[in-house]
Write a structure and sequence with these properties.
The chain has 16 helices and 16 strands. With about 500 residues, the protein is α/β, with parallel strands linked by helices. It has 3 domains: about 70 residues, Beta Barrel (Elongation Factor Tu (Ef-tu), domain 3); about 270 residues, Rossmann fold (3-Layer(aba) Sandwich); about 130 residues, ATP synthase alpha/beta chain, C-terminal domain (Lysin, Up-down Bundle). The strands form 3 sheets. Strands 8-12-11-13-14-10-15-16 form an 8-stranded mixed sheet, with helices on both faces. It has a 6-stranded antiparallel barrel with strand order 1-2-5-4-3-6. The termini are far apart. The mean pLDDT is about 90.
């Protein structure tokens, strides 16, 4: 041991003796001014667009505009302590964020700083926040189901892993609640979830974290959050940082679900930055590249080929509308980028129908390929039944005399809608969803009183769990709905209906 130590010391002395100090030339910029998180910097002639900078050696920033005499940069920290003349240092690196398993279960900001009061996450890896989307040659079609636990979605608007599905609607229509239900349903399904709170109220961020923690979902979720009080620059970077964290796991061959809540606030933050940079405004004062910033973000969600590990990242962007106007600038942009949309309607909320999904305006363009064959077979008539009900309901408003067939169809539609309602925080297993949808399409709920439908549903799940739990497992695992399995479902529902009707008749 002594000989080894002596050799190490001898080599260290040799290195010190032969070391020669060489001058190192580096560019150092000068801060001219900073206003509302936008800084003007002079002197960094070789700086790159998007390069990571350090203001006064400690506050991070990013090059945003290259101009003839100076740079326009966004400051990602407390810019109030900066003064004109402060030095600005180049890092010669693009903006990157910490990534890795150390972030799972944590609430962080886009820079990776802890917001949950815990120790700073010590990530070993960093990843650029802005990268190109995987090319089409590295993708494969969406074929695997992303189960949401929400009956309406899994039956009529099915989703697949790698899909981008927009959630759109007015304020207080349940957009965030629906996205959280999808996250809650991923428990035990080996899907990592990321929730990006973009410029949300602090109370909303705290409430979401509380919900995820209370249901045990934070154990497989990363929360990336910025509040409405944060600078516009930090709000703008939030979805890109969250996407980079998800991409790390996607390229490791894992499945990721990411929620962007919401891109309306992101567009507003980018508009504010662009106007401060004196970029030319376009429609509704948004800059000309507003479509690009959202498309470049959402295109990064994909189902990768086996060559790249076979991982996937599914995106749920959320957009808020004004007075139900889905033809506004930002909503139409994102509708054209995504693979479908889930439209939540205020009128349905007023009627107590939750989740308030408008079936006529909602669509999934690729999820049907990923829907389980049993659910596809069982739910094939459901959308048609509901469409006929809404049509008859409009007609019935202008007619006092209805024939018996029309009355039966209207009552069937009312019971179907009541059965499709679902409280927040109660995602269902696929087998139970199949049984409920089968009961609707086969008319097995028609003899149940309308006011007892929810109680019938709750008792049905308990009955199946107690009497024939293997049936649910078969509905979830088998690929084909055989005649024997269909008859078994029908017999079980008929027997349960008899017992339930006797029970409520007493």
């Amino acid at each position: 041991m002594g000989v080894v130590l002596e050799n190490v010391l001898q080599r260290a002395k040799e290195v010190v003796r032969t070391y020669k100090i060489k001058p190192e030339v580096r560019e150092i910029g000068e801060l001219l001014e900073v206003q509302d998180g936008v800084a003007s910097v002079r002197g960094l002639r070789k700086a790159m667009l998007g390069e990571f900078l350090l203001f006064a050696g400690k506050i991070p920033g990013q090059v945003f505009n290259l101009e003839k005499e100076y740079l326009r940069c966004i400051v990602l920290g407390d810019y109030s302590i900066l003064r004109s003349g402060d030095p600005v240092f180049r890092t010669e690196q693009v903006f990157s964020v910490p990534v890795g398993k150390e972030l799972i279960g944590r609430v962080v900001n886009p820079l990776g700083d802890a917001l949950d009061g815990g120790q700073p996450p010590l990530c070993q890896t960093r990843r650029p926040a802005f990268v190109a989307a995987p090319p089409i040659t590295k993708r494969v079609p969406v074929r695997r189901s992303l189960l949401t636990g929400v009956k309406i979605l899994d039956s009529m608007i099915p989703l697949g892993k790698g899909q981008r599905e927009l959630i759109i609607g007015d304020r207080r229509t349940g957009k965030t609640s629906l996205a959280l239900d999808v996250i809650l349903n991923q428990k035990g399904k080996n899907v990592l979830c990321i929730y990006a709170a973009i410029g949300q109220k602090l109370s909303t961020i705290v409430e979401v974290a509380k919900v995820l923690r209370s249901f045990g979902a934070l154990k497989y979720t990363i929360m990336v959050a910025t509040s409405a009080e944060d600078p516009a620059a930090l709000v703008y970077l939030t979805p890109y940082a969250a996407c980079a964290m998800g991409e790390y796991f996607m390229y490791q061959g894992e499945d990721v679900l990411i929620v962007y809540d919401d891109l309306s606030k992101h567009a507003n933050a980018y508009r504010a930055l662009s106007l401060l940079m004196r970029r030319s405004p376009g429609r509704e004062s948004y800059p000309g590249d507003i479509f690009y910033i959202h498309s470049s973000l959402l295109e990064r969600s994909a189902q990768l080929s086996e060559e790249l590990g076979g991982g996937s990242m599914s995106a749920f962007p959320i957009v808020e509308t004004q007075e139900g106007d889905i033809s506004a600038y930002i909503p139409t942009n994102i509708i054209s980028i995504t693979d479908g949309q889930i439209y939540l309607e205020s009128n349905l909320v007023a009627q107590g129908f939750m989740p308030a999904i408008n079936i006529g305006l909602s669509v999934s363009r690729v999820g049907g390929e990923a829907q389980t064959s049993i659910m596809k077979r069982v739910a094939r008539r459901l959308r048609l039944d509901l469409s006929q009900y809404f049509e008859l309901e409009d007609f019935a408003r202008f007619s006092a005399d209805l024939d018996e067939v029309t009355k039966k169809q209207l009552m069937h539609g009312k019971k179907a809608l009541r059965l499709l309602t679902q409280p927040q925080g109660q995602p269902l297993r696929l087998g139970w969803e199949v049984l409920s949808v089968f009961a609707i399409t086969e008319g097995l709920i028609d003899e149940i009183p309308e006011g007892e439908i929810k109680e019938w549903e709750n008792q049905l799940y308990l009955y199946v769990q107690d009497k024939d739990s293997a049936l649910c497992e078969r509905l979830e695992k088998e690929e084909v709905l055989s005649g024997e399995l269909e008859q078994k479902m029908r017999d079980l529902l008929l027997i349960f209906n008899q017992s339930f009707l006797k029970k409520i008749a007493k």
